[in-house]
Write a structure and sequence with these properties.
13% strand; globular
Length: 181
């Protein structure tokens, strides 16, 4: 497969683009999902509408920024430990050595991110589209989610991103479950 500029998110891993294979972005998302599943944590994936994927965890407005940031740091560290050949958790571009950055700091105050269902200023008018996890697999093309198909998909699927705004997870319970694994 040809290489393409892509990025991957944790809750929201969005970063400066590097040369990374699309299949690697998908693999990193799948590993993230597996780790979160092992913790008993619900997660929701969406395309960035550009080149990456964002993974969201419902927090129910129960945690501080610092708590959510540190939880995200744990998740990306675990993902990186499983995929060290092509992922990095180094913030400085020069320290990444061309690897895909797993960005857990995109959650910081004043950071921007494409909202779910928003049209992006990209060729083809791609949309930041929520996905079912079974769609996050080899062959996924972000360019397939564009303005001409967005309304039909939303009518067919409903708002599959709505649970992100739900009750929220229990961070302590999730960490304890994973630690006892």
């Amino acid at each position: 497969m040809a290489k393409k500029k892509t990025t991957l998110p944790d809750k929201k891993n969005n970063s400066e683009a590097v040369e990374v294979n699309e299949d690697q972005v998908i693999e990193a998302a799948q590993v993230t999902k597996s780790i979160l599943d092992d913790m008993g944590v619900e997660s929701y994936c969406k395309t960035s509408g550009s080149t990456g994927l964002h993974i969201y965890i419902p927090l129910g407005n129960k945690y501080t920024y610092e708590q959510s940031k540190e939880f995200a740091r744990v998740i990306v560290t675990l993902v990186h430990n499983e995929l060290p050949d092509f992922t990095s958790i180094e913030r400085a571009i020069k320290d990444r050595k061309g690897k895909m950055y797993l960005d857990f700091l995109q959650n910081r105050p004043h950071a921007t991110i494409a909202a779910a269902y928003s049209v992006r200023p990209k060729p083809g008018a791609t949309v930041s589209m929520p996905l079912h996890w079974d769609e996050v697999k080899k062959g996924l093309k972000i360019s397939d989610f564009h303005i001409r198909k967005a309304i039909e998909r939303m009518n067919d699927e409903g708002d599959i991103f709505k649970p992100v705004l739900g009750k929220g997870i229990d961070l302590k319970k999730a960490i304890e479950k994973y630690a006892g694994k």
